[in-house]
Amino acid sequence: GLYATTMGDCKIMIDKYSATDPAYAGIAQILMALNLGIATDLWGDVPYSEAFQGQNGVFTAKYDAQADVIASIQSLLDQGIANLAKPDNIDIPGSDDLYYGGLADKWIKAAWTLKARYANRVSLKDPNSAANVLAYLANGITNPADNMENPHPAATNTQNQWGAFAQQAFGYMVANKFFIDALMDPAHPTDATKYDPRLDYYFRQDTADYNKAPLTTSKYTGSDIADEIGNPDASTVGKYFGYLGPDSDLVAKNFPVITSFEASFLAAEAKSRLGQDASADLNAGIKASVKYVTGGANDGSSIATYTQATATLTNIMTQKWIAMFGQIEAYNDVRRTGIPVLQVRPGSAGAKPGGIPQRLPTPQNEIDGNPANAKVIPLTTPVWWATH
What we know:
Layout: H1 2-17, H2 22-43, H3 66-84, H4 104-121, H5 129-137, E1 148-150, H6 161-168, H7 177-183, H8 199-202, E2 255-258, H9 260-273, H10 279-294, H11 313-323, H12 328-337, H13 364-369
Antiparallel strand pairs: 1-2
Helix pairs in contact: 1-2, 2-3, 2-4, 3-4, 4-5, 5-9, 9-10, 9-11, 10-11, 11-12
């Protein structure tokens, strides 16, 4: 999907419009960088320099080293920013741009924030990583109005993947106790004033069985990894994902891609690594996340109370992990930093030496179709940017 459709289409746009419609080419370069990032984050070394060359007879692309792929991502973003700043376009994007309606300045801010994301991604490899993050963020997203979201418009009733899956396969995916506990005050499990306000939006309250309404108390349960069978009655994803329950209609909900709260957490981590006070950025990230998740119903001030002393890297990464719930960035950060420390379910494949899977498996059709280049790597082997 990443190569044959999304990035393949981006390559066509870049090749076709760079000379005449640089705004379209610039958007395509940013989307190419975004999706190439997803590919390399999940698989490590992936094709790029020889990819999209089927029309030239190249059907077995070589795999580029992850360091080179990330350099290509940064180059694509630089090119996209430059193209969007060019004034001469035969055609200008408008309503056909489903993200920003053709507003070049918003695309440019998103690109700079994406540059910061990938500068941060190489924190274990590049000593200039933190400084680069802060430099890129100076031009990036600061206002939630500039957030980049995958559109799921109510007019077309298109659901995001989380809500749609919960509706179609109710009980197949439930909350994990470790995550619920991170949001809950264990001393006051039914007191709505004592827990993270995002809990009411991330999850749906427990049900005694699938056909009953939510319980009247604010009760949430996560399935314990130590339970071999699991708890199918544990909390499911909630209204933040457009899911109201098995007997309710789904609500179309946009889903975040690049946001102001991610930018704040990136800044907080970078400042922490530089020995600077990260508390203001950490609190800003929490507040922006809470406002986003609750639709403005809560400003997050009750939990955004970190000081210079408590704005540690562990607290920054834990709060970012909570804020990025549902996004691949949470998985990326845990692999890179080891924060928070996740427990492996006893008896699972991940309980074998190596622990939690560090990458996705190479697809069998790639192994069959590109045998000279496809890399079959154990799932417990970290990708390049996650190793010291």
